[in-house]
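Hi support team,

I submitted a single chain yesterday and got back a structure, but I'm not sure I'm reading the token output correctly. Could someone confirm the output below corresponds to the sequence I sent? I've pasted both exactly as they appear in my results page.

Thanks,
R.
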Amino acid sequence: MIRAEEIIESLTDMADERQRDVLMRFFKTGKGEYGEGDRFLGLKVPQTRSVVKEAKCRVPLHEIEKLLYSEWHEARLCGFLLIVEEMKAALPRRKEPATAGAERRAELAGFFLRHARQANNWDLVDLSCEYILGSMLLYPGVDGEMPPRDILDRLAESDNLWEQRISIVTTLELVRARQFDDSLRIARKLLPHKHDLIHKAVGWVLREVGKKDLDLLREFLDDNYRSLPRTTLRYAIERMDPPERLRWLKRDRK
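Hi R., thanks for writing in. Yes, this is the structure output for that exact sequence:
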């Protein structure tokens, strides 16, 4: 077993004051910004991943919980990445029934959801939720039934920015499996949102839908064009041919 204190010590040993200042600006930690008050050791993501690689599947959930509530951003990231590794280990192996590991997957997804608000910046959300919650949603539970996906709607309807972002980013894992309905449903729910971080996330997911099914993306854009934030539209059409991108950007929004 590896304890949270040991992991934080390993992270602290790599602290870089110059990089800390860069990260604090990049992740908007100033007064009134979305990351206000967050504290950084100054590690790059590959450094944090190196600690995760050494510790994966050897840190119990009660120790991971301590990481999730650390004052240090990198420690929280480490905690979420450790849950990702636990979820990978709980997925069915080749020739195993799809229900193999179901109880553990449910436990990990529940643990993630209980502490989801600790993913309190966009990188913590984006590097974890699709691989934890998204993976769980793709496999049947112990009873052989697929997990209900209304959890995505509840997250989208949350009053917490990060849970709202989790609701849409999680669906990237479903898009990879060519399951688009949840992404489009949650995208519609979030179109009226005021925050740029949600506009970007919705556009990102729509872009990924378009890479799998461009006609479906076009249909969604056509049906919802008047409600689309400009940032969402720009992200969604990034992979289209330049002439088509220009047509969407110049389209009358009346």
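A quick pointer for reading it: The two ends are 61 Å apart (CA to CA). Let us know if anything else looks off.

Best,
Support desk
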